[in-house]
Write a structure and sequence with these properties.
Length: 259
């Protein structure tokens, strides 16, 4: 089981779109996938067709009340497993302030999930994909402490480069708590090849990250923006759209890294 966090503290760069569509594309390649929403906005939850305000159990119950991850798993209409989130998760920073090991709650929950899957005859997950909030708060730290690798979606614009130092620093600092933690890859999102600045920033990212850049470019594609309104990953909404094909290519790259 590989745990991958989709993180970037910058807002609106395509984290959720990447988490949902990477999960769906991996599932389409017969991988056993669990998508976990760790953002109180609950976008990944609604993007997979679940009603975020009408869930029996969410990540808030897991992190604040000690409910097990396996009890909170929902089968999404999109065809893979999801653990949802909603605004109940928003108070977590305040609620857990001063709580010892507050940064390890998610890691403990994941360890329990792994051992319960080993005990039962259930198929273990190949991939657990975590959608993080646009912040380096306690929730994101919980994700990074439990994660093997981080995928960073980046929009190729000037400010993208500014936030990068903070995220790299946080990842560096957290390797003390989680020696496995590393950047698995950087994916360029909302990409418009006609835009000169996008091409320049893209080249700068390549110079900085080298092999850590995924070759797949995720284009700006209206189908990717429409699909969540139907509660579907793009692959189920418009299978042959540019966006759907790009995320399938990205999934192939991610699988190749696992070998
Ligand atoms: N490749 C794309 N083409 C077109 N629209 C996109 C693409 N990627 C994302 N979008 C749209 O851009 C907006 C922001 O994307 P998304 O919600 O995935 O970003 P995010 O990083 O998760 O945001 P937040 O930081 O708020 O969690 C959404 O409306 C989404 O539908
Ligand atoms: Mg999001």
């Amino acid at each position: 089981m590989e745990i991958i966090a989709i993180a970037n503290q910058k807002g609106g760069v395509g984290k959720t779109t990447t988490a949902v569509n990477l999960a769906a594309s991996l599932a389409a390649k017969r991988k056993h996938v669990l998508l976990i929403d760790l953002d109180p906005q609950g976008n990944a939850t609604s993007g997979t067709g679940l009603d975020k305000n009408d869930l029996e159990l969410t990540m808030a119950d897991v992190l604040l009340d000690g409910v097990s991850l396996s009890d909170a798993i929902e089968r999404s209409p999109a065809g893979f497993d999801v653990i949802g989130a909603n605004k109940e998760l928003a108070g977590m920073d305040v609620t857990l302030m001063g709580h010892t090991n507050s940064h390890e709650l998610f890691k403990t929950a994941v360890a329990d999930l792994v051992s319960s899957q080993l005990k039962s005859s259930k198929d273990a997950y190949d991939y657990v994909i975590i959608d993080c909030a646009p912040s380096l708060n306690l929730l994101t730290i919980n994700a990074l402490v439990a994660t093997d690798g981080v995928i960073i979606p980046m929009q190729c614009e000037y400010y993208a480069l500014e936030g990068l130092a903070d995220l790299s620093q946080t990842i560096e600092r957290l390797t003390e708590l989680n020696p496995k933690l590393h950047i698995r890859g950087v994916v360029r999102t909302l990409y418009d090849a006609r835009n000169t600045l996008a091409r320049d920033v893209s080249a700068e990212l390549e110079a900085h990250f080298g092999d850590l850049m995924y070759k797949t470019l995720i284009p700006r594609n209206v189908r990717l923006a429409e699909a969540p309104a139907h509660g579907l990953p793009v692959i189920a909404y418009e299978r042959w759209s540019k966006g759907a094909r790009a995320y399938q290519k990205l999934a192939a790259e991610v699988i190749k890294q696992s070998r």
